[in-house]
Automatic annotation (TrEMBL):
It is a multi-pass membrane protein. It is found in: Membrane. It holds the Pfam family ABC_tran. Belongs to the ABC transporter superfamily. ABCA family. CPR flippase (TC 3.A.1.211) subfamily. The keyword Nucleotidyltransferase does not apply. This is ABC transporter domain-containing protein. GO terms for cellular component: membrane. It comes from Brassica oleracea var. oleracea. It comes from the Eukaryota. GO terms for molecular function: ABC-type transporter activity; ATP binding; ATP hydrolysis activity; lipid transporter activity. Keywords: ATP-binding, Membrane, Nucleotide-binding, Transmembrane, Transmembrane helix. Residues 589-826 form the ABC transporter domain.
């Protein structure tokens, strides 16, 4: 015996979990390909690190060797300077940063000359400012003394250390800035760097001072045309600018503008040094000379680095570019989860599970838990493999921090997928959008969001606002972990630990945790009001009592005036009203004035799919719904199964209201939809096991029920029951859909055109199954086969234009709407008139209903027609003219259907 109680939440969850595991087992190679993606990206990072090490982290020859054959130099190139021991760094003369030739400012608006060294200055006192600017560099033509006495500059790019100054070892000249250059102003100096000595040419260049009235004018001039290459005003870059503000004889107050562009011209961190100290020294010396005379100076002789031992540069390049790759790796789960959810929605598999008793709670719990477990397994493989191949991102940071962060991030990602799935109904569209989200997030993260993170002047509030986007919050967390790993590897210490967890990591973790909870609740709420068609305030509405019975008084029953309603339909309506007065539980299905109106779109009028249907279906009856395409039969079944809500009216299944008790109704019903809703990669047996468990079948009872179902629809032999659905023919899928609707012996079964696409033998076998099933429950069946309707249905209703036109058993309908014989006679065309006169001789009210090429068909009223007279008249006609063929038949159900459909 089967258990008549509905399946518990645990039983439903177990059924769904088993189905998911079998589905993933069949999808094993897709899962393997998915898992190999992070492996591939991790290996790619290792290859990039090895290539970087071979180019930057390994010495290019021994320290102190100019090449493989000649040694003896302590350090000879800028490459070796970063690695070799430097116990006594050189003393490099401080320089100014001179614009490169292609960037220098033109001064054609003020002078006929232009200079590579142009200074702007302003202040409250122009004359004092001009004096100070003149004092900045000497006009003496002779060379002598220390280089600190000269104002030197270079257009070479600054280095990131002062161990090897690029200005002295490059081919670019060093400029000596003077008021005026004489023919003998240039000179050569000897750069002595033991054991090397080499000459360096010092070229004289005129310094040009330009007054501006205010800081606003200075800013405007500095920015105007800056590196834009305008033909009228050449590219506008100045050496520096000074604002002497309120400087006077007792106070020096100066602001210095300098070009910080050059500090970003290196890809090696920290950023390049900028040549600013000499500018400050020039302003100080100019003011000192103004006060004390030209003999008083503060000499700025040299800039020198600290001594350093021999080092090996170890830069973890994989940590620098890791956030991009790791963001892609984690987000690759998003399209998988989203497409799974949308696939069930597109194929209507979830509503199929719901109609067979799967509640919302088990679906959400199992689906969410299943995605979490798959994601955890995916991330564990990713982290373990990354650690095994030596990625510092995983090795140096605390594993517990990574575990917490990854756990929160995958939960947030799953919540986003559930929320976004409500917006899509097509898998292809969802897949495209999901991958745009994946790769777009990574690229925007590294090229936009990271730029804002590293800008100390960017408002922190805007950073938090951007992190509300889940992709950026994930990127921020990965960025913090990567920076910790990079710094730890560079310094030779541990990475991120709980005791020194940065503010950025705390901030993004809190944001992700709060977003996860909010999005999960939002996703469940939207699912309930869209997919489960619940009221938007269902959280606050009281759930109807399970023991509530529906009784109606005469005042509660609304009377409807239906124009030209047939007596049998009126009688059915009265029967419904009587059941409503007594108890709705006395009928398997009870519909009271059920209506469905679809709103018009694009200027089209409203569509009345079901117009006030009243129907009472007793226990154990098979009711057949006949009607042309578009008559509203499927809309009626969709309302009864909860797919759509009725516009008005009420309906009850086993005494339960379809508007409030649909979840309980599903546990006692079975559905064979018009289209087969099946998983391609599951077998027929696995489908029946899943739906059998939803009907609370267990153990040997479940196994026996599945085998009997397979046998009843001819899917047991030949291993057909264990084949995947994708290998089934259309007829086999249809038979399986019927078996699914009947497993567990449901009290009410809806079958929407169950025999479509079946061969005659399979159709006959299916009829036997339905006949046995209606002994245990009630069946509502729609069909276009009149033969099927006569064989299976106890009562029939013909549905036309959304309304019930007639109802009764097949014999009653044929007697009521047939009531005639059909005479067919074929002769030559010239004798058609004679045939018509012959027919009217024995049936005055005969009606011609068909004529073509000598063949005529007449409808003869049964009351005035005697079969013997028809035979006698035909025999008489054969003697008068040739009769090719003739026949007399009783009215068929098909004739009744056509007649009702045409006259309605």
């Amino acid at each position: 015996m089967t258990d008549s109680r509905p399946a518990s939440i645990l039983t439903q969850a177990d059924a769904l979990l088993r189905k998911n595991l079998v589905f993933q087992k069949r999808n094993i190679w897709s899962n393997v390909r998915l898992v190999t993606i992070p492996f591939f990206l991790c290996l790619l990072l290792v290859v990039i690190q090895l290539l970087f090490d071979s180019q930057f982290n390994e010495d290019h020859g021994q320290c102190g060797c100019l090449n493989e054959k000649t040694c003896g130099l302590r350090y000879s190139t800028s490459d070796q300077a970063a690695f070799c021991a430097i116990p006594n760094p050189s003393q490099w003369t401080p320089l100014l940063q001179i614009p490169s030739p292609q960037y220098r400012a033109a001064t054609t608006l003020y002078l006929s000359l232009s200079s590579p060294v142009t200074f702007l200055f302003t202040g409250n006192n122009q004359s004092l400012g001009e004096t100070l600017m003149r004092n900045m560099y000497s006009n003496s033509p002779e060379f002598g003394g220390d280089l600190a006495n000269y104002v030197l500059g270079s257009s070479s790019l600054p280095a990131y250390t002062n161990y090897m100054d690029s200005s002295f070892i490059s081919d670019l000249p060093i400029y000596n800035i003077k008021h005026k250059c004489s023919p003998n102003s240039s000179f050569s100096i000897l750069i002595h760097q033991p054991p090397l000595s080499f000459p360096k040419e010092i070229t004289c260049v005129r310094g040009l001072n330009l007054w501006r009235n205010s800081t606003f004018d200075v800013n405007k001039e500095l920015f105007k045309g800056y590196r834009k290459g305008n033909q009228e005003e050449k590219i506008n870059e100045y050496t520096a600018a000074f604002d002497f503000q309120n400087t006077n004889g007792s106070r020096l107050n100066v602001n210095v503008w300098y070009n910080s562009t050059y500090k970003n011209n290196t890809v090696i961190r920290p950023m390049a040094l900028i040549r600013v100290p000499r500018l400050v020294n020039l302003a100080s010396n100019a003011y000192l000379e103004f006060l004390k005379g030209s003999q008083t100076k503060i000499l700025f002789e040299y800039i020198k680095e600290m001594p350093k031992p021999e080092t090996k540069l170890t830069l973890d390049i994989t940590s620098l570019i890791g956030p991009l790759f790791f963001t892609w790796v984690i987000l690759l789960l998003f399209p998988v989860i989203l497409t799974t959810l949308v696939y069930e929605k597109q194929q209507r598999l979830r509503i199929m599970m719901k109609m067979h008793g799967l509640g919302d709670a088990p679906y959400w719990i199992v689906s969410y838990t299943y995605f979490v477990l798959v994601s955890i397994l995916y991330m564990l493989c990713f982290a373990v493999f990354g650690s095994a191949i030596g990625l510092n991102f995983f090795r140096l940071n605390d594993y517990s921090i990574q575990l917490v962060f990854f756990l929160i991030s995958i939960n947030l990602q799953i919540s986003v997928a559930f929320l976004v799935s409500a917006m899509f109904s097509d898998v292809k569209t969802a897949t495209v959008i999901a991958y745009i989200y994946v790769f777009g997030t990574g690229l925007l993260g590294i090229f936009l969001f990271q730029f804002f993170l590293e800008d100390p002047h960017f408002p922190r509030e805007w950073i938090i606002a951007m992190e509300l986007y889940p992709g950026f919050s994930l990127y921020r967390g990965l960025y913090e972990l990567s920076q910790s790993a990079f710094a730890a590897d560079y310094r030779g210490v541990n990475g991120m630990r709980w005791r020194d967890l940065g503010d950025g990591m705390k901030e993004v973790t809190c944001i992700m945790l709060i977003e996860w909870l909010l999005l999960l609740v939002s996703a469940f709420y939207i699912d309930q009001i869209t997919y489960s068609s619940k009221h938007p305030l269902f959280f606050f509405l009281q759930t109807p009592s399970k023991k509530k019975q529906h009784h109606y008084s005469n005042k509660q029953i609304s009377k409807f005036v239906v124009e030209m309603e047939k007596p049998d339909v009126c009688q059915e309506r009265e029967k419904v009203e009587q059941y409503l007065l007594e108890s709705t539980e006395n009928c398997a299905v009870l519909c009271n004035n059920l209506k469905k109106v679809y709103s018009g779109k694009d200027g089209n009028p409203q569509k009345l799919a079901v117009r006030g249907l009243s129907l009472a279906l007793p226990q154990g009856e098979c009711f057949g719904m006949l009607g042309p395409n578009g008559a509203g039969k499927t809309s009626f079944i969709n309302m009864m199964t909860g797919i759509i809500k009725p516009s008005s009216g009420s309906a009850f299944v086993q005494g339960l209201d379809i508007l409030t008790d649909m979840d309980r109704i599903y546990t006692t019903t079975g559905v064979c939809p018009q289209h087969d809703l099946l998983w391609d990669k599951l077998s027929g047996r696995e489908h029946l096991l899943f739906y059998g468990r939803l009907k609370n079948l267990q153990g040997s009872v479940l196994t026996q029920a599945v085998e009997e179902s397979l046998r009843s629809v001819n899917l047991f032999h030949g291993g057909n029951g264990d084949k995947q659905i994708r290998r089934y023919s259309g007829g086999m899928k249809r038979r399986l859909s019927v078996a699914i609707s009947l497993i567990g012996n449901p009290k009410v079964v809806y079958m929407d055109e169950p025999s479509t696409g079946l061969d005659p033998a399979s159709r006959k076998s299916l009829w036997d199954v339905v006949k046995r099933a209606k002994r245990k429950g009630s069946i509502i069946l729609t069909t276009h086969s009149m033969e099927e309707a006569e064989v299976l249905c106890d009562r029939l209703g013909i549905f036309v234009n959304g309304s019930l036109q007639c109802i009764g058993n097949p014999k009653e309908l044929k007697g009521r709407y047939g009531g005639s014989y059909v005479l067919t006679m074929t002769t030559s065309e010239e004798h058609e008139q004679e045939v018509e006169k012959l027919v009217h001789s024995f049936s005055k009210n005969a009606k011609k209903i068909y004529r073509t090429l000598g063949t005529q068909k007449f409808e003869l009223p049964r009351k005035e027609t005697k079969i013997a007279e028809v035979f006698q008249a035909v025999e008489k006609a054969k003697k008068m003219f040739p009769v090719v063929a003739w026949g007399l038949a009783d009215t068929t159900l098909e004739d009744v259907f056509v007649k009702v459909a045409q006259t309605s």
